[in-house]
């Protein structure tokens, strides 16, 4: 087999200038469906907008991502425990949390295309285009001046860059103020002033901006007359807050401590798009960390760095991550930022870190009439704890892993291959066992090896087609190791292990296989790199 020559990651960057953003994203979506990662929901009935099903490989990868997060939270931190709260909650919960009155998106329609957009996203996309212009100016100058080029000095002195940055700063400030003041006319005026056009119609024939509540309603009761309105939860955090005292007392937890949860949430996203990036039914991994008032900003910084290390431990390149501080703080926060990743469609949020103050527990105490406080034995006083939250979307994290891992490589021998370079500890299939031919006892030996490995790893057996085609299939689904059984295996009890990323092959004893694979796919290596 040919060695790797040129590798191209399917990301919008200088790595691949010949493919448009749309083409890159379509290739990713197509790969997910073709190889059993993600399917459109109810596809035989033409699907349901913004709803997707995870296929046989997708669910394995998703479960591995969740395990990586869960272990990083609960195993690396002896003061964090987990719960699994119900999706249905008392409707007063959502009044206390502010969702009934304030969980809205500012939407605007284009009269010509009949398409609906989030007004703030239209403005953010305009800002992103200006930032791209600055990057292009920097790149041109770097080529012109060579080694003597100072990007910092160029950004601080170049007239064109300063002009673009000033417009970005002014627009960001205007949008933050308008959104904070709920000034919808002001939000529309920004769109008008920036001459933002509809991506479909190309016109500026906009309606007024209006707020749209995102919660799904349903009824609960024995009869239609007696049924009460309840909501599908739009986030998992409130299930943690209402269980604060239950966990604290039953677990004898001392502040600071955290409660982690993984679960489904539901939002009536009108402008859901970009595949699984924004969906109506999605899964969250959230941790609420309860702390003494006055220590929240210190812990906020701690969790920012811890969570960034968790992402970067996957090895997708530190340059593809950045923090983005919120221009508009949520009603409950005194500090907030996103961890953004460079998707094929640009830098987008995958995780939020928020200092939520005492808003949540304080409001639940007020609305429920129950005392929700912590008695601090060291201080000799009771108080409502403050909270720092880390919240990450499982589906967005899944999309990040797929975006970062999917590569097209041209080999030294001129052949091409598509490979999913998923980090081995979270790969959906850890090892494929391949008999060279379907006879002479090779399949039986392959099955025996699988029977030894399957108690610890997800394995595949494949005997169809040439060995080269089988390697390519395993490359495409991200299997880090292939074990080939040949006639020599029958003689000396050795097999060939092929490594996905380098395509190198080594001959090893069958007795050594379990140890080699076990060490490479163990989650321990990822977790250790977070705490170093």
Automatic annotation (TrEMBL):
Highest taxon of source: Bacteria
Binding site for ATP: 267-269, 277-282, 349-350, 393-396
InterPro entries in the record: aa-tRNA-synt_IIb, aa-tRNA-synth_II, aa-tRNA-synth_II/BPL/LPL, Anticodon-bd, Anticodon-bd_dom_sf, Gly-tRNA_synthase/POLG2, Gly_tRNA_ligase_bac, GlyRS-like_core
Domain Aminoacyl-transfer RNA synthetases class-II family profile: 162-435
EC top class named in words: ligase
Gene3D superfamilies: 3.30.40.230, Anticodon-binding domain (3.40.50.800), Bira Bifunctional Protein, Domain 2 (3.30.930.10)
EC number(s) recorded for this UniProt protein: 6.1.1.14
Main localization, broad class: cytoplasm
Known catalytic reactions: tRNA(Gly) + glycine + ATP = glycyl-tRNA(Gly) + AMP + diphosphate
Keywords for the protein's UniProt record, in alphabetical order: Aminoacyl-tRNA synthetase, ATP-binding, Cytoplasm, Ligase, Nucleotide-binding, Protein biosynthesis
Cellular component GO terms held in the UniProt record: cytoplasm; extracellular exosome; microvesicle
CDD domains documented for this protein: GlyRS-like_core, GlyRS_anticodon
GO biological process, one term: glycyl-tRNA aminoacylation
Subunit-level organization: Homodimer.
Protein name: Glycine--tRNA ligase
Source organism of this protein record: Mucinivorans hirudinis
């Amino acid at each position: 087999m040919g060695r790797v020559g040129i590798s191209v990651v399917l990301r919008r960057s200088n790595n691949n200038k010949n493919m448009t953003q749309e083409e890159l994203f379509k290739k990713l979506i197509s790969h997910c469906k073709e190889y059993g990662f993600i399917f459109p929901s109810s596809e035989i009935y033409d699907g349901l907008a913004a709803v997707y099903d995870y296929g046989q490989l997708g669910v394995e990868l998703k479960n591995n991502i969740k395990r990586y997060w869960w272990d990083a939270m609960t195993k690396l931190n002896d003061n964090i425990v987990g719960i699994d709260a119900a999706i249905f909650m008392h409707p007063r919960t959502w009044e206390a949390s502010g969702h009934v009155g304030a969980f809205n998106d500012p939407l605007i329609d284009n009269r010509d295309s009949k398409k609906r957009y989030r007004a703030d996203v239209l403005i953010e996309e305009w800002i992103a285009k200006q930032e791209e212009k600055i990057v292009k100016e920097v790149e041109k100058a770097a080529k012109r001046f060579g080694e003597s080029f100072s990007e910092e000095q160029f950004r601080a002195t170049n007239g064109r860059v300063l002009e673009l940055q000033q417009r970005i700063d002014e627009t960001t400030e205007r949008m933050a103020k308008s959104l904070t003041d709920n000034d919808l006319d002001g939000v529309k005026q920004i769109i008008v002033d920036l001459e933002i056009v509809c991506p479909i119609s190309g016109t500026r024939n906009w309606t007024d901006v209006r707020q749209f509540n995102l919660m799904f309603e349903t009824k609960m009761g024995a009869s239609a007359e007696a049924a009460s309105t309840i909501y599908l939860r739009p986030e998992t955090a409130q299930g943690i807050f209402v269980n604060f005292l239950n966990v604290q007392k039953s677990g004898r937890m001392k502040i600071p401590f955290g409660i982690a949860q993984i679960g489904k949430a539901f939002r009536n996203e009108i402008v859901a798009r970009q595949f699984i990036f924004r969906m109506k039914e999605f899964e969250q991994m959230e941790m609420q960390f309860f702390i003494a008032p006055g220590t929240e900003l210190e812990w906020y910084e701690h969790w920012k760095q811890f969570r960034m290390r968790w992402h970067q431990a996957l090895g997708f390149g530190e340059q593809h991550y950045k923090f983005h501080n919120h221009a508009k703080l949520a009603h409950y926060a005194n500090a907030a930022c996103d961890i953004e990743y460079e998707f094929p469609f640009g830098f987008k949020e995958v995780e939020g870190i928020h200092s939520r103050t005492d808003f949540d527990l304080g409001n639940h105490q007020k609305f429920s009439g129950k005392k929700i406080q912590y008695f601090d034995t060291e201080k000799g006083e009771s108080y409502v704890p403050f909270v720092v939250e880390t919240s990450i979307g499982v589906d967005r994290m899944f999309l990040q892993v797929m975006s970062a891992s999917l590569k097209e490589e041209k080999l030294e021998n001129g052949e091409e291959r598509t490979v999913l370079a998923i980090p081995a500890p979270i790969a959906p299939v850890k090892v494929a066992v391949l008999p060279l031919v379907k006879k002479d006892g090779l399949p039986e030996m392959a099955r025996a090896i699988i029977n030894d490995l399957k108690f610890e790893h997800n394995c595949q057996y494949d005997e169809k087609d040439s060995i080269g085609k089988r390697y390519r299939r395993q490359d495409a689904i991200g299997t880090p190791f292939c074990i080939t059984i040949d006639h020599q295996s029958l003689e000396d009890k050795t097999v060939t292990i092929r490594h996905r990323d380098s395509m190198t092959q080594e001959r090893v004893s069958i007795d050594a296989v379990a140890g080699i694979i076990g060490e490479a796919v163990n989650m321990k290596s990822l977790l250790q790199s977070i705490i170093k």
